[in-house]
Design goal:
It is a single chain. This protein folds into two domains: 12-117, 3-Layer(aba) Sandwich (Rossmann fold); 123-187. The protein is built from seven helices and six strands, in the order H-E-H-E-H-E-H-E-H-E-H-H-E. It has helices at 12-21, 34-44, 58-67, 82-87, 99-104, 116-150, 160-179, and strands spanning 27-29, 48-50, 73-76, 90-94, 107-109, 204-206. A four-stranded mixed beta sheet has the order 3-4-5-6. It has a two-stranded parallel ribbon with strand order 1-2. The two termini are 45 Å apart. Mean pLDDT is 80; it is low at 192-219.
Length: 219
Amino acid sequence: MIAIADAVRPSAVDAVKALRERGVEVVMLTGDNQGTAERIAKSLGIETVLADVLPGDKASKVRELQGQGKKVGMVGDGVNDAPALTQADVGFAIGAGTDVAMESADVVLMKSDPFDVVGTIELSRATLRKMHQNLWWAVGYNVIAFPLAAGVLYPFLLGPSIAALAMSGSSALVAINALMLKRTKLTGINRRSMKEAGKAPAAVATRATGKGRNVRASA
């Protein structure tokens, strides 16, 4: 007797656990039969399983989840996953997968490690926090500086030379705060030891599709 079964990636269990800890609902979307899908989902700690899904129906399943008001991220590596990767709000393609899947996705996991999805989400959230911080700083600076420069709070005035220095200082603070993003510790991408070849390999490549620009980022 010869038994054949799908092997679960070593980091998949940790990836699912980390995502759930961050409030991300994990759903298994597969063409496998219900029994096989539930067995694998149980080993991974996934509660919601959508099995027996035909290749052409994966995108519609993603639309159904989006219709429930959810932001959907799809992880896939095959040709059949391409429509669903395109339909999802964010598509993650496995680097070792097909070219079609990688071209359809927004993010390519170059190390083919599912745990890098966690690092990608953390990096995205950290970037958004920096954007909010810089935005509020700019708004606060202008709310205070404009009235002073216009003489609204006379006799407290902001002279041209001081205003120029303040503007330069504000720009420098925004730039420094943005550069601090490099110090963000990413649980997923940086979890491996830096001893490997003395340097961590590229972890994530991101592609902004349909917007006239391609971006690749590595860690």
